[in-house]
């Protein structure tokens, strides 16, 4: 570790997030020493954001710090795991202290909100890129995976879909700051809200879950393949925000809600006998839940309208490698 | 996760390393699910290698895969931790399958050697950069940290120092393939050997440890600051390989062994009453151990010759941020 880098880490990253009793030794040694929760499974994920690919190079550093952690919290949420620790690899072109301070603020605020401690990391020189690893806990056998969806299960999504894609479109056209609604859409893009509480509430209720990072069609597709099932999706039921209803054409709304990335909502399946619990869960965690389809035997995704007629929508296929990269 | 990226991960990374019973759910979901070892502390570290900074852009992919994991194993070794799991964030300019296959081979071979499983990761598009997180276990209270060095402790290092710096110098001048010795030096640079067995053997024996990634002076400096002590280092005792003795000038040898990076040897301190154990440890793990100095009260590093006269060597100061970045 170089001296000034050592100083940067000491100054901005040595006490980031919450203090936790299970951190035996935090930032500043060759590795952190942690005390895992007895009897629980450790959920471990990693996600990298590359400047110019996953966020604009000139995005405010505070939002980059927020988002780098948020996308990983979203993965933990999709497992029903309670966040505990994070590590951070920050690659930056130069040691711009203002940028680093703002980045650390965005990262730290979200970490504290979720009771999470930053326990280790490194800073290297290079093209802007942030790799975060998040660890959390879930009781053995109660994790939400992609494998448990069964025919007849209802398919639900949290929040609204397509906001981030619309926010990006407006932002790219210099229309991100027109009014409250476009600013809200920009926030949805730059400062996503990981659905951690919802993930915890869905333990024992959802049969499968995934976070919607690459668009509903694609992410639900992962669940279908992992579970060996198909699905019917009612495109007229896909939840769209009032901001999107105002600023997107009908065609854009369909496209964004099916294949727009970066929403970080949860898509999950529940057995029908559990559907009645969802209203209470939605109220408790303060997130709208919408039933959007049904798991069926077979494979693949059938898009239908409310009257069950086939929806002739073009769903952009799986993005080719490199266009966005994995937000899984 | 994009389709072709999904395919790449399935093809090259879904079963990399050893199979372990404590991996409840590996690559392919939103997070891995792992069963930590009861009663032990989890050691967690992360280190990023940036192409063109930490390895040449045209380094063989197999060695890049090896090194990306090795530098993290070296951190676990310095904690006295037994490796268990790794995650991988691979950022590459294009989906070059030959490169990825060779990278995975280098990573996987080293992981298997150490009984480690790759449990998660992502692939993104961008400038070549690899961020690896490694997790291991160490019984509570038996980890080697940087904090325990006390006046009177002997300072020891494993292996030989400065080989990687010399290897880089030769390689940069197109002299990496002259003979067995220059090839060995190139291997020391490109394919470092993490001292995992030594780290395990030093539990209960070493009072502090650090891996030598940025040069002995700098890395020992971290131990001195963390422990609140100083040290006297006998520069005539620094272990130099026969290859370095042949290809480096005396001045280069001194400089490389004190401040050359990338050696990934261990520097550790032991109470004198434990010194007699080191020969047996060195034999058992097959690594040379050399006593190079003594911890003393105060602060800072005194360089001396065998006759205790001050060594007037110029030790390049802490590398400025960005020249190399953290290999801590």
Concise structural overview:
The structure is a homodimer of 328-residue chains. Chain A is α+β, with helices and mostly antiparallel strands.
Rg on CA atoms of chain A, Å: 20 Å
Overall 3D geometry of chain A? globular
* Major sheet of chain A: 6 strands, mixed
Quaternary:
homodimer
Distance between the termini of chain A: 31 Å
- Assign the structural class of chain A, choosing from mainly alpha, mainly beta, alpha/beta, alpha+beta, or little secondary structure: alpha+beta
Beta-strand content of chain A: 25-35%
Mean pLDDT of chain A: 92
Architecture of the largest domain in chain A in CATH? Alpha-Beta Complex
Total strands of chain A: the figure is: 12
What strand order characterises the main sheet of chain A? 8-10-7-11-9-12
What do you see in this structure?
Chain A has 328 residues and is α+β, with helices and mostly antiparallel strands. Chain A has 2 domains: 5-139, PurM-like, N-terminal domain (60s Ribosomal Protein L30, Chain: A, 2-Layer Sandwich), CATH 3.30.1330; 154-304, Alpha-Beta Complex (Phosphoribosyl-aminoimidazole Synthetase, Chain A, domain 2), CATH 3.90.650.10. Chain A is built from 10 helices and 12 strands. In chain A, the strands form 3 sheets. In chain A, strands 8-10-7-11-9-12 form a 6-stranded mixed sheet. A 4-stranded mixed sheet of chain A has the order 3-6-4-5. In chain A, strands 1-2 form a two-stranded antiparallel ribbon. In chain A, helix 4 (163-172) crosses helix 5 (180-190). The longest helix of chain A has 19 residues, at 61-79. At the A-B interface, helix 1, strand 2, strand 3, helix 2 and strand 4 of A face helix 1, strand 2, strand 3, helix 2 and strand 4 of B. Strand 3 of chain A pairs antiparallel with strand 2 of chain B, so a sheet runs across the interface.
């Amino acid at each position: 570790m170089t001296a000034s880098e050592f100083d940067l880490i000491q100054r901005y990253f040595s006490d980031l997030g919450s203090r936790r009793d299970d951190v035996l030794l935090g930032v500043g040694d060759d590795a952190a020493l942690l005390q895992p929760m007895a009897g629980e499974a450790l959920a471990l994920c990693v996600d990298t954001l590359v400047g110019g690919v996953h966020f604009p190079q000139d995005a405010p550093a505070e939002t980059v710090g927020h988002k780098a952690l948020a996308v990983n919290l979203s993965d933990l949420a999709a497992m029903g795991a309670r966040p505990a620790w994070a590590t951070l690899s920050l690659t930056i072109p130069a040691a711009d202290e203002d940028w680093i301070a703002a980045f650390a603020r965005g990262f730290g605020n979200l970490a504290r909100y979720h009771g999470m401690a930053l326990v280790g990391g490194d800073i290297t020189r290079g093209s802007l890129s942030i790799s975060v690893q998040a660890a959390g806990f879930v009781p053995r056998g109660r994790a939400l995976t992609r494998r448990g969806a069964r025919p007849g299960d209802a398919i639900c999504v949290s929040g609204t879909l397509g906001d981030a894609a619309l926010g990006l479109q407006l932002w790219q056209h210099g229309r991100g700051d027109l009014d409250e609604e476009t600013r809200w859409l920009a926030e949805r893009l730059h400062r996503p809200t990981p659905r951690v509480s919802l993930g915890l509430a869905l333990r024992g209720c959802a049969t499968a879950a995934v976070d919607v990072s690459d668009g509903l069609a694609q992410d639900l597709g992962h669940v279908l393949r992992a579970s060996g099932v198909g699905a019917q999706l009612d495109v007229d039921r896909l939840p769209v925000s009032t901001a999107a209803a105002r600023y997107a054409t009908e065609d854009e709304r369909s496209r964004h809600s099916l294949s727009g990335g970066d929403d970080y909502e949860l898509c999950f399946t529940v057995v029908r006998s559990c559907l009645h619990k969802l209203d209470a869960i939605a109220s408790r965690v303060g997130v709208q839940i919408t039933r959007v389809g049904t798991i069926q035997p077979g494979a693949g995704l059938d898009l239908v309208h409310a009257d069950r007629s086939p929806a002739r929508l073009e769903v952009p296929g799986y993005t080719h490698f490199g266009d966005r990269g994995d937000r899984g």
